[in-house]
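Dear colleagues,

For the upcoming journal club I promised to circulate an example of a predicted protein-ligand complex. I picked one with MTE because it came up in last month's discussion. The inputs are reproduced below in full, followed by the predicted structure.
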Amino acid sequence: MLLTRRPNGIDLPFPSEITPQHVYLQRREFIQKMALGAAIGGSLFEMAQREAFAQTASAKLSAKRNPAYAISDKQTEFKDATSYNNYYEFGTDKAEPAKSAKKLKTRPWSVVVEGEVNKPARFDIDDLLKLAPMEERIYRLRCVEGWSMVIPWMGFPLAELIKKVEPNGNAKFVEFVTLADKAQMPGLSSSVLRWPYLEGLRLDEANHPLTLLTFGMYGQVLPNQNGAPVRLVVPWKYGFKSAKSLVKIRFVREMPKTSWNAVAPDEYGFYSNVNPGVDHPRWSQAKERRIGEDGFLAKKRKSLMWNGYTEVASMYSGMDLKKFF
Ligand SMILES: Nc1nc2c(c(=O)[nH]1)N[C@H]1C(S)=C(S)[C@@H](COP(=O)(O)O)O[C@H]1N2
Ligand SMILES: [Mo]
């Protein structure tokens, strides 16, 4: 049995191992399915099973690949991309989110868009999904820790949403607020970061065609540990800028305070563009380990300026990238 070590040193079984899975199910949906099940004669047990399956496995999502944004590097194995995760709300260990995020309820879910916009709105996730055509894009993801993956994401440019809410002249930055629910997220009891996990972009970065509002990966909806039901993917920046499980997007005048920058401003800058020429104070950023190539003889790869997305360079012309790291 899996044990989770408490700060007091007492090992407890993971809740997911002692509680039947259907207990986690989104209640409204469950009741609806039960009513339907009764009508068509399905047993309660069958319904619970089907529902449990829907929560844990692969609801398909269709999207058309956009060849302009599909790099040819070998894709990271699905298994690796979904079992080696940073999602501190579910624990700081890489293997933990895949287990403890099973409980995350991703319906009902809405994303509030507010601040310096003419048309503030609250989008139900199932409406947000349909706001623009879903595209598949294969992006490199470079974690600030020195590893990278290649992931086929599914989503549409954040710019599509920005267009709908009409930022006004005061909007200079965009703040991203993610879910912080103590009842569902065991990691929130830790003070490693400030919660909710906050991230931010300059308005032009948020509007850049590479910036993807992301709902799926590998042909299916995002697994919870990868940021279900909706996250950001900003491929030319270190991975922590790509905030998971968004609940609010705010258009603001000033550069927002972000979680990582707040805990260690000298280590995690607001921009955090991938830059092999600017080392992290505690390690080099010159190279990276591609997940899946980590055999004994595997060579590290050279990290690329802007993570290879050189088309973003003009947004930073004239800026001292050592200062604005
Ligand atoms: N809400 C939230 N978003 C987050 C994180 C987190 O801890 N919480 N970790 C970030 C980091 S450090 C990385 S590298 C990426 C990892 O995304 P992946 O697990 O889908 O590969 O998510 C980012 N988004
Ligand atoms: Mo990361």
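Two points we might discuss: The mean pLDDT is 88. Residues 86, 143-145, 239-240 surround molybdenum atom (ligand 2) (CB under 6 Å).

See you all on Thursday,
B. R.
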